Amino acid sequence: MVTTDEFEVLRQQIQRLKKELAEVKQRNAELERVRSSAAPEVGELPVAISEFEETLRRLVQRTAMIVQAEKCVIMVRDRETGDLVARPPAFGMTDEELREFRISPDRGISGAVFQSTAAGIFHDAATDERAVAENLVRFRIRNGVSVPLLIEKRDEENRIVDRITVGVLHCFNKRYGGEFIEEDVRLLERLSRNAAAVIANAQMFQEVVEEKQKLVHTLESLTAGLIFLNQRGRIGQMNTQARAMFAVPEDFNPIGRPIEEVVRHEECLKLLHRKLEELCHPQKEEEVGGIRQPDEITVHDKDDVEYIYQVHATSVTDDNGNPLGTVFLFTDITDLRHVERMKTEFVSIVSHELRTPLTPMKGFVRTLLDDENEEWYTREDRREFYKIIEENVDRLGRLIDDLLNVSRIERMGAAGLDMKWEEVDLRKAVEDVATVQRARTNKHTIVVDFDPETIVVETDPDKIQNILHNIISNAIKYSPDGGEIRIIGRLEPATETEPESVLVGVKDQGIGMTEHDLKAVGNKFYRTAQSKSIGGTGIGLFLVINLLKAHRGRLWPESEGLGKGSTFWFRFPVRQPRDENGNILPLTMDLKE
User: Fold this and answer.
1) Which end of the chain has fewer CB atoms surrounding its CB within 10 Å, N or C?
2) How many CB atoms lie within 10 A of CB 225?
3) Which letter does DSSP use for residue 413 in this model?
């Protein structure tokens, strides 16, 4: 018979078994819930990255609860450094600790588990060599269990053909002072398959997002306009340059809209539809009469500035050759066409500019030759004729010098200009130029406004005269109704970053400039729309800018708009920088250049 004591022992054992069975059932229920809430298998489509993060957060929390751990963290391989790094979300660890938790894949408990793909347990972080190598005690870790995160690739018959390690799953600090055991390892190995699936999908999703961002940034950074039309004629992509071309408002999203709703340029729409037709029904070159020149369209912006674009189109297909849509590329060839046009105009203008001084020269020479006996004209008349011939010879010489300087600048930049440095009284140089310019106009009042009166600078006397003549003569030329032309000179003290310099401005009351003119003025052969009837070669300010570069200076214009006059400012150092021997540094050696 069973005694009372034996019955009591059996009763206690039954109670203990019931309790253990209840705990096992609870663990199994938690495990099933984790498995049901885990991410889809690798082969399934990824969900939003925020859902991945939420899934991982729930997973690490429940994993820590199932194995009764105080901390749970996932480590993955950093693609750039190759290190194993802790990634959020984690359980029981701060963001700062996660940032510090990283190690080479050949060190520590993390590296051992990652490399061997075998689980590992350590019971004392202060004495276990692997835990010491990882310095886990800094995170207040006592013990832990770690399993690899493995992705298994299977064939059609569900046989494992490959295993890829994507990271390590750690659980640290067994609750209530306990130790991790093999049962914890088995639980974590089951859980790790779900974690690995989530990580793999998250990494795949992140890579897709990054590649898409790279593609978008690449398209947005193109200087050419790009429009992608899908098979239904709707916009699938339109970069910044294309939106600017067709004045698409910033708050308007063109994606998914028909091209006709976004591009309100009839010539462009006709061209796009024609190119779509050509791509759908390609013709041989001989059928269209030989090689066709690239198509071009002209677009005007809100300021009525003309832009010319060359248009290319190509079909886009997937890996199987199925059509996805058409890409149109708009390449800005405005500058190219303008240069071609301006070169043609330049040849005509230079021919006229060269002929202008030659005509009076030839006329007065012929007049003097016809008066062989010097009977028709007095000595004063002849002297006047010679003076006119001399002035036109000088004018012709300046034009030739300008053309030669342009050639040097094109070959070697401003450094190719030959500078003969001297100490020059800038006020006197300005007065000399102003005297010459006053003789050429009776409509303008030229005022010299210097403070201090005397500013001595290091410059090339001929080059500074060339700069002043160009700017002041332009002020006269582009102020056809006359008015005051004020030449301002100021001495500017040295600063921590800049040497002592001189600031000069030439202010007129002329035709003014548009915002577009302010940006383009100084480009070779460029002349404003308002100046086309005034004449000139379009190289004067181009030369001035490069002459000032040779002085280590710069030029900039200011204007409040058409009809409100202009001011051309320039600044350059009072003294040029020198080497240890006292010689002026060549322009190419000046780091600021």
Assistant:
1) N
2) 22
3) G
Q: Which DSSP helix (H) or strand (E) runs through 72?
A: strand 69-77
Residue 502 sits in the same domain as residue 537: yes
Rounded Cα distance between 42 and 198, Å, is 8
In the chain, DSSP finds a helix count (H) and a strand count (E) of 15, 18
* Claim to verify: residue 93 and residue 56 sit in the same structural domain: yes
Check residue 531 and report its DSSP letter: G
Both structure tokens of 305? 């500035």
Query: Which H/E stretch holds residue 199?
Result: helix 182-221
Altogether, the residues listed in the chain come to a count of 593
User: Do residues 207 and 310 share a domain?
Assistant: no
Name the nearest CA neighbour of 61 among 202, 191, 206.
Answer: 191
Sheet holding 501-507, edge to edge: 444-451, 483-492, 501-507, 567-573, 554-558
Q: Measure the CA–CA gap between 521 and 525, rounded to whole angstroms.
A: 9
Determine contact, residues 72/170, Cβ cutoff 8 Å: yes
Q: Report if residue 304 sits inside a domain.
A: yes
DSSP state of 425: E
Question: Alpha carbon 317 to chain centroid distance?
Answer: 29
- Supply 166's token pair: 């994507």
Burial 451-478 (b: 16+ CB within 10 A, else e): eeeebebbbbeebbbbbbbbbbbbbbbb
CATH code of 185's domain: 3.30.450.40
Amino acid at 420: K
Q: What share of the chain is helix, strand, coil (3-state, %, to 5)?
A: 45, 25, 30
Same domain flag for 536 and 439: yes
C-beta of residue 513 within 8 angstroms of C-beta of residue 559: yes
Tell me the chain's radius of gyration from C-alpha atoms: 41
> Which tokens hold the place of 441?
């106009």
Cβ–Cβ < 8 Å for 140, 131 = no
Residues linked to residue 73 through DSSP beta bridges, in sequence order: 170
Q: Which domain holds residue 22?
A: 1-30
Contacts of 389 (CB under 8 A, 6+ apart): 360, 361, 364, 365
d(CA 310, CA 336): 11
Pick from 319, 241, 550, 544: which is nearest to 416 by CA?
Answer: 550
Q: Region of 324 please: left (phi>0), alpha (psi -120 to 50) or beta.
A: alpha
